[in-house]
Structures are given as C-alpha cells and as structure tokens.
Amino acid sequence: MNRPIRTTCPYCGVGCGVLAAVAADGTTEIRGDSEHPANFGRLCSKGAALGETLGHSERLLHPEVRGKACDWNTALDAVANGFARAIREHGPDSVAFYVSGQLLTEDYYVANKLMKGFIGSANIDTNSRLCMSSSVAGHQRAFGSDTVPGNYQDLELATLIVLIGSNTAWCHPVIYQRIRAAKEKNPDLKIVVIDPRQTATSEIADLHLPVKPGSDALLFNGLLAYLHDRGDSNTHFVDAFTEGMQPALDAAHACAPSTAAVASGCGLREQDVTRFYLWFSVNEKTVSVYSQGINQTSSGTDKVNAIINCHLLTGRIGRPGMGPFSVTGQPNAMGGREVGGLANQLAAHMNFDAGNVDRVRRFWNSSNVAQRPGLKAVDLFRAVGEGKIKALWIMATNPAVSLPDADRVREALAQCEFVVVSDCVRATDTTAYAHVLLPASAWGEKNGTVTNSERRISRQRAFLEPAGEARPDWWIVSEVARRMGYAQAFDYHSPADIFREHAALSGFENDGKRDFDLGALATLADAEYEGFSPIQWPVPRDRPQGTPRMFADGRFYTENHKARFVAVTPRGPFNEKDDEYPLALNTGRVRDHWHTLTRTGLSPRLSGHIVEPFAEIHPQDARQHGIKDGTLVSLATRWGEMLARARVTETQRPGSVFAPIHWNDQYARRARADALVNPATDPVSGQPEFKHTPVNVTPYQAA
Ligand code: SF4
Predict the structure, then answer these.
(1) N or C: which end of the chain has fewer CB within 10 A?
(2) Domain ranges, residue 172
(3) Are 130 and 688 in contact (CB under 8 A)?
(4) Where does the 4Fe-4S Mo/W bis-MGD-type domain lie (predicted)?
(5) C-alpha of residue 170 to centroid of ligand 1, in Å
C-alpha cells in the first residue's frame, strides 16, 4: 500500500480505523487499520467501498448565492448579513442551526460556540437527535451524566450479550463481527436478540424474542421484578451506590406481576421469556446493547432506563464484561454530544444551570451566553414552518428526507426567509431550498477528531486536496462569526487550535465534577495532535492514558454521587393502529447504504446489494391486503405516502411493515419512507418515533 494515512471511517458510530492511500492513477486504496482498537483491521462493506465514493461528480464545488456561483467573500457576507438582520429585527431566538453527526468535533464546537456563546440562543440541534437522544436522556437520569460506561472489549469478555432493537449485523457490522468472533471462540457465550423482526443479526442468536413493537419496557420491567424476586440483587451495590430502587420495583411489579403476564403483553412465548430471564440471572458478565429500536420511540428514554435499572439492581456496571451499552448511529454522534450540539446541552456535558452558564461565559469571555435550552429538531422545524425561525443554517445533513413528516419540513423550508446549506454534495433534497450554498470539505479532505460509541476519540486525517473551492466547516463558521463581529473569539488557524480550546473548556473548573474532561489534552502541541492515537475519555490531567470503563468505583455524577433507578410505567406508541391504518410502519437501514444515499449511492457495488425501496410484510397481512410478493405497493399514513416493492416474508412480525429510510427524490420518486413517519416525539428526549406509525398498505394502481 502506497504511504497510507491513518484516519477513521465516516459512516457509523463503531468508529473503525482506516488506512487510506492514494495511488498514482488517483484512485484511493482503503484498508482496515489493524492497530485501531475499534476494529483491529476489520471493515464492513460500506467502509471497504469508501474509495469508490470519493469522486467529484456530485460535489458542491463553489459557493452560490440565490443560484449563482460567487466567491467566498460574497457568500460569507450574505450569510453573516442574513443572520445579523434576523437577530436585529426579531431577536436571537429567530435564528437556528441544524447540524449533523457527520461534522467533526472541531466543526461542531465552533458552531455551538457561535450559536450558544455569541448569538445568545440555544437553537442549535443535530440530526443525532434522531438516533440516540433517548440514550443521552436515559444516561443523564440514571448516572447524572451522559456516560457510556463500558467498551467494545466487554463484548468479548461477556458470557451473555443481549442485543435490543439493534440489527447489529447491518447497522454496526464490525461490532457484529467482533461478537461473532467471540461466539466462535467461546461457544458458551449466549446471545439474545430482542427485535420484532427476524434480521440478519438473529442468525447468531441463541434466543430471538420477536417482541410486540413498543413492549420492551414491559419486558425489562418484568426482568427487574424477576431478578429481585429470585434474590439476584447486588444489595451492597444497591445500598451503597444507588437510590430509588423501591419505586422502580413497585412500578415493575405493577405492570409485570408474572412472567406469563409479561409474555402475553410482549406477544412472546412464556418459556422464551423465562429462558431469557434465567440467562440474565445466572450470567454476571452481561452486556445489554441497545440502539435505534429502543431510542426511536415516543417512550425511548423510559425503555433505556428500564434496561439500565436491571444493571443497577445486579451491580453489573463499570466492570469488565458487563454493562448497559448504547451504540450510536453516526460517526460523531458522541463528539456532538461532547461539545453541546444538542439544544438542551450548553457545552462540554454541562446543562443550563446558572453556575454552568456563568462558567462558560467566563471561559468564552462572552456576555451573551444562552441561558436556557433551545428547540429540539422536530420542534425546530415546526418553528420554521410557523415563521418563528427567520434564518436557518443546515450543515452536512438532509432534513428534507430524513426528518419525520418530511413533506411538512419541505413546506417549512420553502417558506423560510433565509436558508443556508453547507454541504459537500450539490444536489440533495435540502439544497434545493437554500438561498446560500457553501461547499464544505468531504471525508478524506478534512482534519479533526470524532468519538465513537465507546467514548474513543480518533483522528480523521486529510489525504486528498479539497474539491473545487471546498473549505472545512470550522473555517466556514469562523469566517461567518468574524463577519458578525466576533473575530477575536473565532481566531482559529487549525483544528488543533479548536481541539485544545475544547479540551480546556471540558477541564475548566471540573475537578472530577463532570464526566467529560479532556484536561490532559488541553496543551497538546500541533505535532502531538497530528500524531494523536485513539483514546477513551475522560482524559483528566491526572489520567492522561484515558479511561476504558466508568463507574467501577460506584461514584456517579448525580449530586449525591448515587446512580438513580427510574420507575418506569410502560407506554404504548403515541399513535395506535386503527381501522383506516391497521399496520405499524417501522423504518430502518439496510446493510450497504448510509442515510440518504448521498455517499453510498455513488458506489455501484453498494447500490447493487438492494437496488430499490421495499416494504416487508408478513404473508398473513399480505393475504389480507391483497399484496403479492414482488409487486408494487402503496404505503399511506396520515402524514404521507410512498411506493415500494413488496417483500412478503415470515421474518416480519404480523401486524407490522418495515421500510428502509434511504431512498429520496434523487434516486427514486415517491420513495421517501420518512415522509410517512409521524412527528410524535419522546417527551423527555425529543427523539422522534420512527419505529411506529400506523400505515395502510394496498396494491399500487397506476393512475
Ligand atoms: Fe465504517 Fe461502521 Fe463499517 Fe466500521 S462498521 S467500517 S465505522 S460503517
């Protein structure tokens, strides 16, 4: 391989290390980095095909204002003036940023600092809201901080792995490869897959529990009661390090008086529920991995806490081979959380209490720091539609396809006074609504850091020249900030400058009070930043080697340092099925595509895996609705409609339909699944309910 550059895959939260080398003919060779602790050389189909997606044919190459190419100064002036005018005339809360887990931490930090630190509004939210904000909220309720306790190695040390709402084989393939390898090495390792669908992941399951959609909290409340009643509580841990067990147990017993009641409520066989509970009871080394199937529901936060409750009761947290484990969808969902990229976080894992606002005000030397949380994604776009947001900047994401009720999002964008989009792609469904387009550097062209699902910070490094006039996101935001009058605070010359400031803020007046602390990295020299090796935060001054596991000492980040049980009363979906819409639509991903196809759609190899949108339906429902395998069907909900190819399959649970989220107007007409999704959200986290929208499916009749 020709002089490889060490970098990180831009697709998912596994955060695999990649070696990239540009050959003499301009093609890029990609290999897994055998030294990266996330993947030890492995890659999945998407990561392995990265070299096929780096062409310039779809790139946004030059700035544009109102459809005309222009120079950077003209475009940046237009953005600064547009935002300044809206703030002057309507106040700081009349503007918003909608950002992305595709941004690097340094980009994210600068965008958050501009909005929350200098514009003085917290209206910056991220598409990570759509993938893991319920886990964030669940962590904060239980631990007092948004902390993932363990790491990937725990999967290899466990004797029981429970995969909940996670098609790991397709959505986090290298984690799946690690689990499969662990199973081959240790045939006694038990794997339980909890998912309404029979997926590729179920193939390695010793037990698959096809739960009724939405019944996960009941299943884990039943487990909590079972463990307690069997005497499996770790009383020392519970007494010394937790609080709130009794109300949580009371709530669990109230809804789950017996295993039979749980089985009935979850639509499962009682012997399967009993077997799962028994395995959980006898395997101390248990890791519970959860993902979008838990998070993307209107009670996702409660479900997360129902899972964590079982680990608190048994004291299975912070030690090798055990713990609750949220895996994130996006490459830098975790990095965005670190800088405060969610509208309800201020910065560096600090919330909006008066002490934090004052601390951040002093650190940033700004008198205009936001005092309260801003609008979360669904509410933010609702406010755009209501005319309350006058100027909106969308960075590196495609909300016209990916948000729920996406047709209303399009209407909102169409009537917004000033829309800016910075992206590396010229023609997304969202760029069509932009008044100003700013060409951003793509993967392979930019430098910075990302954090994966196990809190591991890794470098992304450039190995290609920027396409056209593309510039890094941090530079674009800093230039706009400078034009808005904040030159001194945004005088950055490199991502290393920003990383040092980010690390310093995390360690500022911290002294172990907050989980997120990179104090030991605040003085990295440029050369050290360049040679940065993957490391797991926190990295406080007295622990420069990082922290593989958290909470081993039983000390949490609540006020009294005790972890909190949360009493969970299971709730059904926000919108129930009815006679008009008798099935439940569940949306998700396929193995070889990423988000809205803007990158993976460029690879013929990846596109060849599944070539068109489809809808999976159980044979029993297909018969009832007159659907034949392989025919075109129309899916309709109260929010939108789409066409797809029917796949009649027994892997689908009766009463439900699965459709992938990826296709959009660039690739197929009337094929956007998220246009059908109800905009109901979890009341705690604001995460939308992508996993349950009442739907009707009928044979397609051409007009
Ligand atoms: Fe990239 Fe995720 Fe595949 Fe790893 S598992 S190569 S991070 S897409």
Answers:
(1) C
(2) 131-329
(3) yes
(4) 2-58
(5) 10
Say how many Å lie between the CA of residue 167 and the centre of ligand 1.
14
In 386-472, alpha helices (H): 399-402, 406-415
The per-residue pLDDT for range 299-330, each reduced to its tens digit, is 999 999 999 999 999 999 999 999 999 998 88
- The residue type of 681 is T
Do 386 and 505 fall into the same domain? Answer: yes
Whether 282 and 368 map to the same domain: the answer is no
pLDDT level of residue 668 (50, 70, 90 thresholds) = low
Number of folded domains in the chain?
A: 4
Torsional sign, CA 176, 659, 681, 570: negative
Residue 390 near residue 95, CB atoms below 8 Å: yes
End position of a domain, from candidates 274, 294, 329: 329
Q: Do 402 and 513 fall into the same domain?
A: yes
Cα 642 to middle of ligand 1, angstroms: 29
Half-sphere exposure of 561 (CA within 13 A, CB side): 10
Residue nearest to atom 6 of ligand 1 (CA): 47
Give one DSSP letter per residue of 152-164, joined into a string.
THHHHH-SEEEEE
Task: Read off the pLDDT of residues 200-259 as tens digits, 9 standing for 90 and up.
Answer: 999 999 999 999 998 999 999 999 999 999 999 999 999 999 999 999 999 999 999 999
Residue 309 in any domain: the answer is yes
Here the CATH number for the domain that contains residue 290 is 3.40.228.10
The token duo for 22 is 């540009």
Element (H, E) at 699: strand 693-699
Question: From start to end of 385-452, where are the E strands?
Answer: 391-395, 418-423, 436-439, 448-451
